[in-house]
Design brief:
alpha+beta; Chemotaxis protein chec; 7 strands; about 35% helix
Length: about 150
């Protein structure tokens, strides 16, 4: 079983997110500098990762960014994308990212099973964890859209 350090694990998630967003929408995302706020955007998709090292995956985006991404994913004009379609797209993005990360991490000590994805709505949502919890966080963007991710183990 491969041992990964926390930085390598963060790079796996960042790469998976960028790859999937590019595949489903054509948007190429790059790592953005840490904005320091540590918070979530208006929409956050989440999924539980169960295994020897259990955790949670969070992907967060501003509603307008998620609407634009959904538009590119579905071929529907952004102004015609409904809130429900935006939520479905974010759940699907979380599902694809977690599934791809699961495959990439299957030979590591971070292999896991997945829960059903869910959405958290609202700004100012804070993630508070115990002292020994490991947090991986990053932001990806391209000038048109940006997404934040957090993974806790």
């Amino acid at each position: 079983m491969d041992k990964l350090n926390i930085n390598e694990l963060g790079a796996v998630y960042a790469d998976v997110i960028a790859s999937i967003v590019s595949t489903v929408s054509g948007f190429y995302l790059e790592a953005l500098p840490d904005d320091g706020d540590g918070g979530f955007e208006e929409m956050t998709g989440a999924m539980s990762l169960s295994g020897e090292k259990s955790g949670m995956l969070f992907i967060s985006a501003a509603e307008n960014d998620m609407r634009l991404l959904c538009s590119y994913m579905t071929g529907v004009f952004p102004e015609e994308v409904t809130a429900e379609e935006t939520e479905d797209a974010l759940c699907e993005l979380v599902n694809m990212v977690a599934g791809s990360a699961k495959l990439r991490l299957s030979a590591s000590d971070y292999m896991f099973s997945l829960s059903t994805p869910f959405i958290i709505r609202g700004c100012g949502v804070a993630l508070i964890t115990k002292n020994k919890t490991r947090l991986i966080a990053g932001s990806l963007g391209n000038g048109e859209i940006s997404v934040k991710f957090k993974v806790i183990y």
